[in-house]
Amino acid sequence: MAKFLFPEGFLWGAATASYQIEGSLDADSKGESIWDRFSHTKGNIWNEETGDIACDHYRRCAEDVRLMADIGLNAYRFSISWSRIFPQGSGKANKKGLDFYRRLVEQLNSNKIKSSVTLYHWDLPQTLQDKGGWNNRDTAKYFAEYAAYVYANLDLPVDMWITLNEPWVIAILGHAFGIHAPGLNDFNIALQVSHNLLLGHGLAVKAFREAGRKDEPIGITLNLAPIQSLTEKPADLEAARRSDGFMNRWFLDPIFKGSYPQDMVEIFSRTFSLPATEEGDAAIIAEPIDFLGINNYTRILVEASGSEDAFMGNPINPPDAEYTEMGWEVYPQGLYELLIRVHRDYGPLPLYITENGAAFPDELKKDGTIDDPRRINYLQTYLLETWKAVEDGVPLKGYFVWTLMDNFEWAFGFSKRFGLIYVDHPTQKRYLKNSAHWYKKMISRNGLEA
Ligand code: IFM
What we know:
Strand order of the largest sheet: 2-3-4-5-6-8-11-12
Bound molecules: 5-hydroxymethyl-3,4-dihydroxypiperidine
Number of strands: 15
CATH architecture: Alpha-Beta Barrel
Radius of gyration: 21 Å
Structural class: alpha/beta
């Protein structure tokens, strides 16, 4: 049997996000977030579900850290809920909110699990949304102030800091497609939001350097996908190039090259208003970072849409491919392609896969087991491609499965199970799936056997 071992010190983790697991929606003076508001608005979420209780992780945190230790994770990525720390978004801080995360980091540290802290995974304080949310440039400044408070007061060693999770999703799904909070449908706003998010990221990185948390790295997590053209026809190739500009380069270029991609500026400006910017923004956004976090689940295959001004091709779902419960094509070789490309075009800098995983319809058997071979196969094949990328020189330092436990999958409520741990939501009982046992073995070998 061949072995595919990863470099020593490689991080093997799982990831979560505050709103998806914590519950305790107003405990210890937490303020309302846009996801509280959005999920309580009829028609937004499958089966009218909400994150009010979610996995009750706010109260079951110690048990959950024990489960992480059982699986053998050496890293855990979680996010801080801004409205626990600043219930009104800014102004007076709520010490009790931060205490929860301090306890969590303490428990992780004492279990030798490295902590990866995301400062923003989508749950903006509602009071800031009432002032325009991310469409308001001031939100970037409030974000940096909140971040600075956390840097100064989460006074325990933290292993990695991540400013934002998936700004593309925040801007586009939340402000152009209306399927995520705050539920807007305006592409002009989405473009402005993308800029303000990037600005908030840059300001938070600057504040981090000023906070003097030496030896702790900071970066950002982007959702990236390899984009492929259905054919070699010039129109399809052009559609793929634009789709890549929209999905990937619109965020990568300003962060790593100091400017928005010129082709996309030109294409967007045919139909939309470009974001309002101020002098100095580009330099703030390009403030150097220590690593890039990549979330990847699938590839995007496109053909030309027929419209001259389209910024995205028509997506194609090959009929003979395998799909996850989200309808996402299982395409492991795309992760290899993506890692090589990001390293080539934006490196050299350490990379992490901060999310990768799959939802499948899992079934809890009477004996408390969950047999999830398709998830194991997904993880195994994606990790094999990851291994190849490392062999070919990509400085990848860690991998986080999405997700630790079945949780609130945004507009899909609890209907999609991505977890290594099965959560029976009515009882909140947790059960390790076979994939968790598989992951544990893989971590103990520091690699795959195939
Ligand atoms: O659940 C989400 C997560 O919050 C962000 N990345 C994608 C995951 C699966 O949809």
